[in-house]
Design goal:
This protein is mostly helical and about 90 residues long. About 95% of the residues lie in helices and about 0% in strands. The chain starts with a helix and ends with a helix.
Length: about 90
């Protein structure tokens, strides 16, 4: 009888946990998208630097691309690790 009475609380807790997981996943995915866009912007800027024969622009945008690629790689690794952890928790 007590289990039956506690069922709504358990259901609410499960729903809250699911929403938190979905929120965390969305944060990781959005961060990856932003870093991907930054990488594309950096590569486009580097191409513009080559086209304009401007070494400063080229170096700045190559550095931006390198940092965003590193961030994308780290975020992808964290997401993959988090997904493994979440899978085990279920």
């Amino acid at each position: 009888m007590t289990e039956f009475l506690k069922a709504p609380e358990k259901l609410e807790l499960m729903q809250e946990t699911k929403q938190r997981r979905q929120f965390q996943f969305t944060i990781y995915e959005n961060h990856k998208k932003q870093l991907f866009h930054m990488t594309m912007f950096g590569l486009t800027g580097a191409a513009a630097g080559i086209y304009l024969s401007n070494l400063l622009i080229l170096k700045l945008f190559i550095a931006l691309s390198a940092f965003s690629i590193a961030g994308y790689t780290m975020t992808s690794y964290k997401l993959k690790k988090w997904m493994k952890y979440m899978h085990k928790k279920r």
